[in-house]
Design a protein that fits this description.
alpha/beta, disordered C terminus
Length: 461
């Protein structure tokens, strides 16, 4: 269990957050819990249901549970038993990693949830302690004041501005002093939802509902991920394929007929699922190399989430990294007692977060390559590696069922099934962003802030 407990900062700041996504809401909650006054501005005119399924991994559920969301999560989420990876054309399983109770080693569960349900949980958590301004598009930002000017002409001043405004971030342009558009990855994702009542009526599909797993079908240049959400009432499909002219958006509609055409060579069970899809969202996947900085030179503007580290979905860590960012900021800014400490604390945030998010971006890009190998030697080597990890998994299960002691755990470092790589799992899922930030304060910040504030602000930690 964590030894971290929230505290109120000695100095209350007015913090303006741009963007009401998952990261922005998490930041609003964490910074309000640290005693700060929060104003959140959002360009949309209403907060509505958007998106499809999302994976909530132990590095995030531990935070959500600590924030009081244990029971609300259980009501809407699904706890998958494992991940199965399959050949696209035959459905043959070539990879398997058990999750379920195995995730307990990381101190928190692994969940599948609908993005709209997740957004509502965070909104309900943050709303009582923030002022939300909808229909408030930011058209300019003065980083020295700091202040933002809205499309209406209104100017809002604050002590700190946080850009949680996504992959097309305007705040990022101000921080960098230049435009830095994200790069298309060459992939687009179809997203669709199927009522599980339809699948339960089909003998060859009901197992996907009755035994909840994340199932992936890997194909040349494409893959499909599928899992249950909304307490197993809905089945989420995410289908990755070469981009053919989509846009970066959670709400852009795609053609269900074109979707079926793009995956026509997948196994019969997939074809049956796709026949149940009547509408789909289509989302261009964007990527950006790690930025050189997240903090404006004024020390009064910072970036968070996709605004500074957009993630490909192949490792299911996009929302996770944004929420870890928020948790880190909340802990660090709970220690602020003078305005002179703000810039050093923000630079500590960047120092703690930038390497981890860069590593996670790289891990996500790796899965894009692994999943999409063309049929041939690389694909065969991938499948052989995954089968070896699966065999080790099943051996351990058989020994457990027989009441025998487990074999010495294999690390499976570098396995093409990254979920079987125990070292990577420990790094990714065992991370506690609040504990890491609090440890930095105990070991570095408490000593450096004050006479040593300059050393911190220049990154000499």
């Amino acid at each position: 269990m964590s030894s971290y407990t929230p505290r109120k900062a000695e100095l209350q700041l007015h913090i303006l957050i741009v963007g009401c996504g998952l990261g922005g809401l998490a930041a609003a909650h964490c910074l309000a819990q640290a005693g700060h006054k929060i104003t959140l501005v959002e360009a949309a005119h209403a907060i509505g249901e958007v998106g499809a399924g999302i994976q909530v991994t132990p590095n995030i559920t531990r935070l959500l549970i600590r924030w009081g969301l244990d029971e609300p999560l259980k009501e809407v989420a699904v706890k998958p038993e494992g991940i199965s990876l399959r050949r696209y054309s035959t459905g043959e399983r070539v990879g398997y990693t058990r999750w379920a109770e195995k995730m307990d080693v990381y101190g928190a569960p692994y969940y599948h949830i609908h993005r709209a349900d997740f957004h509502k949980l965070l909104y309900d958590l943050a709303a009582p302690n923030m002022t939300l301004r909808l229909a408030s598009t930011v058209v300019s930002l003065d980083p020295e004041a700091p202040s933002v000017t809205l499309e209406s002409g209104e100017v809002i001043s604050a002590d700190l501005v946080i850009g949680a405004d996504g992959v097309k971030s305007y705040v990022q342009q101000v921080v960098l002093g230049r435009s830095n558009p994200a790069n298309p990855t060459g992939d687009t994702a179809y997203r669709a939802i199927i009522p599980t009542s339809l699948m339960l009526a089909e003998p060859d599909l009901k197992e996907f509902v009755e035994t909840p797993e994340m199932t992936g079908w890997m194909a040349p240049g494409r893959h499909l991920m599928a899992y249950n959400v909304r307490a197993k009432k809905e089945f989420n499909l995410v289908m990755l394929h070469p981009d053919d002219g989509s846009v970066e958006s959670w709400t852009a509609e795609g053609s269900a007929d074109k979707m079926r055409e793009d995956f026509a060579d997948f196994e019969p069970r997939v074809q049956k699922m796709l026949s149940m899809v009547h509408s789909t969202l289509k989302w261009r996947l964007m990527d950006r190399k790690p930025l050189e900085k997240w903090i404006h030179k004024s020390g009064r503007v910072a970036l968070l989430g996709d605004a500074c580290h957009p993630m490909l979905p192949y490792r299911a860590q996009g929302a996770a990294m944004a929420i870890e960012d928020a948790a880190t900021l909340g802990v660090l800014l709970s220690h602020v007692s003078a305005r002179s400490q703000l810039a050093p604390l923000l630079h500590a945030y960047e120092t703690l977060r930038l390497p981890r998010t860069a590593d996670t971006q790289a891990s996500s890009r790796l899965n894009q390559k692994i999943f999409h190998y063309p049929d041939g030697p690389e694909q065969e080597a991938r499948d052989a590696g995954m089968r070896a990890a699966m065999a080790a998994e099943f051996e351990m299960l058989e020994r457990e069922r027989a009441g025998l002691p487990p074999p010495p755990p294999a690390t499976l470092d570098g396995n093409p099934n990254q979920w079987a790589d125990r070292t990577k799992n420990e790094i990714q899922f065992g991370h506690d962003a609040e504990e890491v930030a609090e440890r930095w304060w105990r070991e570095v910040g408490e000593r450096e802030l004050g006479d040593g504030a300059e050393a911190v602000s220049t990154g000499r930690l």
